[in-house]
Amino acid sequence: MVTFYVGSVGHWVEKLLLAAGIPIQSVERKLGTYYYKTNIQCKESGPFSCSMVVCMHPVPRELLEKVIAATAHVEPIHDALVHIGDPSVIGIKDINRPDYGEPPNMEDKVPVFWASSVTAHLAVRYAGEFF
User: Fold this and answer.
1) Helix crossing, 64-71 with 9-19: angle to 10°?
2) Residue 125 neighbours by CB under 8 Å, 6+ apart
């Protein structure tokens, strides 16, 4: 038997944003982070294969530069900023219907997406189909 420990990337990003004074909608609304499956295929490793899952935070346009600066130093392989703006570019058909979590309020906000550790959970779940 093998076990993995995968930390929560979404909470790490939230801590960085809050420390920079950037409001977090999911925290303010007392909801979980918004997560979406994308069309970005991860590199396969044995039976582990899936598309990337991203966490999203709606950000006021005037705070985008501050958000980028607050999370720019994050490890590029783990919890990296993936995309800003049009969700269809990364395969998300409806921003108001996250794969995990409650619908966000996108009024006057720009969606910002980070790689999520939920990807690892999805890869493990799909790998189980091979055994």
Assistant:
1) 120
2) none
Q: Evaluate if residue 6 carries a pLDDT over 70.
A: no
Q: How far apart are CA 67 and CA 88, in angstroms?
A: 21
Place of tokens 């420390």: 19
pTM above 0.90, yes or no: no
- Residue labelled with tokens 């490890």: 75
Tokens of 78: 């783990």
Q: Pick the closest to residue 14 from 97, 101, 126 (CA basis).
A: 101
Place of tokens 């921003």: 95
CATH assignment, 9-130? 3.30.2040.10
List the beta bridge partners of residue 60: 109
Check residue 22 and report its DSSP letter: -
Residue 45 per-residue DSSP state: B
